[in-house]
């Protein structure tokens, strides 16, 4: 399957962060977007709230100028982070009064967020979800339709 460089890089960074325990939803440098953007938090200036889908003035300027950050537009970055936080069980945008999971660094919670983000970024690039394992269980004439290679 042919994928874009931005998708390859994002998946590699998210995979590494997940396995190195450096994926942390409440930190702008270690969340999904923070990891995609090389553990920087400069993206947080594109919106007024972590997890919001609304670009602020700075975000709109960058969006209208066609700027991208590691291949993603400001609005795409906000959507990626929103997807991650929602899938991890956060009420978005993040706010101390909003609900959140009891243990936001639990591997199962992070995996749910990671899976949702990967599905979303694959969708952005028009690629089938690379984490879709359902083909492994397809049968034809009572035998596996596809073989593991």
Short structural description:
The protein has 149 residues and is mainly α.
Secondary structure tally: strands: 2
Report low-confidence residues grouped into runs of 5 or more: none
Query: Strands across the major sheet, in which order?
Result: 1-2
- Through-space gap between termini: 14 Å
What portion of residues belong to β-strands? under 5%
Shape: globular
Radius of gyration: 17 Å
Helical residues, percent: 40-55%
Counting helices, strands and paired strands, the structural category is: mainly alpha
Largest sheet: 2 strands, antiparallel
How many separate structural domains?
1
Mean residue pLDDT: 92
User: Element order, helices and strands?
Assistant: HHHHHEE
Q: Enumerate how many helices there are, as a single number.
A: 5
Question: Which key phrases capture this entry?
Answer:
149 residues, mainly alpha, two-stranded antiparallel sheet, 5 helices
